[in-house]
Amino acid sequence: MAVEISKCISTSDLVNTKPGHGMMSQWLAHDEGKTSTSNFDKSLLPVKKWLLNHHWMLVVMVIALALLMPTKGSAQGFGPRAFQLIPDGVDSVALYGFAIEGNSTIDPSVVIQGSEIDIDLAVLQYSHTFEFNEQQSGLLAIVSGGTIEGSLDLGGQTLSDKSSGFGDVQVGAVFGLTGSPVLSMEEFQSYKPGFAAGLLTLLTLPTGEYDESSAINVGANRWAAQVGTVLVWYQGQSMLDPKLRTFELVPSITLYSDNDDPFGADRTGQSAMFKLEGHITQNINKAMFVSLDALYSYGGETTTDGADNNNQQSALMLGASFNAMISRSASIKLSYGKVVSRNDDGPDGSMIRAIVSVLF
Fold first, then answer.
1. How is domain 4-359 classified at the CATH fold level?
2. Conformational region of residue 39, where left means phi above 0, alpha means psi within -120 to 50, and beta covers everything else
3. What are the structural domain ranges in the chain?
4. What is the pLDDT of residues 300-340, one digit of tens each?
């Protein structure tokens, strides 16, 4: 099972993981398979015409979205087709851009009610496929950097603060359990997918910029470990079917270590956070797909110096995504999401995310 984790904002909630990246695998297979270049190029005419007529707009969009993109910290999720099967031996590099406006820090599980926080974050992810127990699996490494600033309501007083630098490094893996065979380019073109399942693991290291005298930081100063399952049901004659449809569910749980040097206290802790992410995707043609997205989060109650804060979170985000190939090995994915339901202690806000991915 390919890894394309969408760094889901704390670098654990803001990214994608496998070199599938939507339609990229289709273009790659076509490029080296038996389909003639002329027939393939015909299927790309709508995209090519748009690029020719709007190339200046595309350049501005890629630069603005990929480098400055705003994204809400809480409910990013991994994104649609983040774990799609791809041909064996393909790696990928993805650049994520996030701009966050809401009430949570770069770590999406840290919600500060009454705050107004803005985050500009760039994320670079490398993914590598490998075979495990005769199933396709993938490794990923994620680095990030950016700026966070905002005004916080702390006990009736308003505090303005700012932090910038590198974020926490993340490493992880997705292990295919069933329905993710290792396929050559030729086998990939004729393979009819069905149900696939995988095991997701993601570890966040406390390597980011952190200052205990600051109320908001780029780094979280704690470890985090996320474990989940990836469930995908494909409907189509092949992975290259222009009418391919997928139904995706990613239930996961994230565990956190304590922060032993927090702002304004001696130690803070947080209980586990449960998340359920879902997507329904549909190809428009061989080069584009759209998706309806949902992410529900629950849990994450915090403690300060051993005392419960009684702030268990609950939130539901809904949104949509669009993915288009911009060359035979590169694609851009745009997503929008908004929190539509939450409790008093849950994250709030909206999210825009852009991902530029390249396969090699």
1. Lipocalin (2.40.128)
2. alpha
3. 4-359
4. 999 999 999 999 999 999 999 999 998 888 999 999 888 89
